[in-house]
Amino acid sequence: MLQLKAAHSDVAAKKKKGPGALATAYLVIYNVVMTAGWLVIAVGLVRAYLARGSYHGLYYSIEKPLKFFQTGAVLEILHCAVGIVPSSVVLTGFQVMSRVFLTWAVTHSVREVQSEDSVLLFVTAWTVTEIIRYSFYTFSLLNHLPYLIKWARYTFFLVLYPMGVSGELLTIYAALPVVQKTGLYSVTLPNKYNFSFDYYSFLILVMVSYIPLFPQLYFHMIRQRKKVLGHIEDYSKVE
């Protein structure tokens, strides 16, 4: 799922005492590496498009770096757990693992969906979002945050979030017939554990969960945008 960290954590971070020098250095390196990684993905997409002259099947050109850097985001959960980043472990874990799930348990596991245009839709949204987000964190840690990056972080989500969610839902939907036919990851009875699991039904539940979650997170970000950027925009109008 399109990853939008709770914006109030960004604001609250400024009011709290930041991480120590060693932790700050580590976080700067981590965020620089992640920014570079997603830039590699962006460049890979553009180069593949220019070489092929078509956007169909571009996923294959960035499959490996996408898996690597999206999985690398799992470290963010650890950052919250040990307290060097003042965000919720639960919220961060949910956001990160939902995207790791879509990367590995859907797109990787159901190869038939990899050529779907919907995959490119969410990959593009993720890529732009992460380049902005990790750049935002890097400059914030260095106490030199350009307004343009701040503005982009609290503005681009207006388009990128619906775009990413649409791509994710369409990709899961495209995977359903394959999962139902093959029984992928499903466990049927009888078995020695007396346990059953229907992955097909689970994916449907995942899709349904978007209904209450998407509006809440989206409008929360809109409120945060007004809180973070509103006073600056209001001042500009007065000028």
From TrEMBL:
- What is this enzyme's class at the first EC digit? lyase
Name the membrane topology term: Multi-pass membrane protein
The source's domain of life comes to Eukaryota
GO CC annotation: what is one? endoplasmic reticulum membrane
Keyword Lipid metabolism among record annotations: yes
- Subcellular localization(s) per the UniProt record: Endoplasmic reticulum membrane; Membrane
Transmembrane segment boundaries: 27-50, 71-94, 154-179, 199-219
E.C. no: 4.2.1.134
Sorted alphabetically, the keyword list is: Endoplasmic reticulum, Fatty acid biosynthesis, Fatty acid metabolism, Lipid biosynthesis, Lipid metabolism, Lyase, Membrane, Transmembrane, Transmembrane helix
What's the main place this protein lives?
endoplasmic reticulum
Question: Which Pfam families did the record assign?
Answer: PTPLA (PF04387)
The pathway this protein participates in, as annotated, is: Lipid metabolism; fatty acid biosynthesis
Q: Which InterPro entries match?
A: Tyr_Pase-like_PTPLA
Q: Enumerate the GO terms in the molecular function aspect.
A: very-long-chain (3R)-3-hydroxyacyl-CoA dehydratase activity
- The keyword Endoplasmic reticulum appears for this protein: yes
Q: Which GO terms describe its biological process?
A: fatty acid elongation; sphingolipid biosynthetic process; very long-chain fatty acid biosynthetic process
Record field: catalytic activity: (3R)-hydroxyhexadecanoyl-CoA = (2E)-hexadecenoyl-CoA + H2O; a very-long-chain (3R)-3-hydroxyacyl-CoA = a very-long-chain (2E)-enoyl-CoA + H2O
Similarity section: Belongs to the very long-chain fatty acids dehydratase HACD family.
Task of the protein: Catalyzes the third of the four reactions of the long-chain fatty acids elongation cycle. This endoplasmic reticulum-bound enzymatic process, allows the addition of two carbons to the chain of long- and very long-chain fatty acids/VLCFAs per cycle. This enzyme catalyzes the dehydration of the 3-hydroxyacyl-CoA intermediate into trans-2,3-enoyl-CoA, within each cycle of fatty acid elongation. Thereby, it participates to the production of VLCFAs of different chain lengths that are involved in multiple biological processes as precursors of membrane lipids and lipid mediators.
* Protein known as: Very-long-chain (3R)-3-hydroxyacyl-CoA dehydratase
| UniProt organism field | Salarias fasciatus
Q: What is the lineage of its organism?
A: Eukaryota, Metazoa, Chordata, Craniata, Vertebrata
Q: Which gene encodes it?
A: hacd2
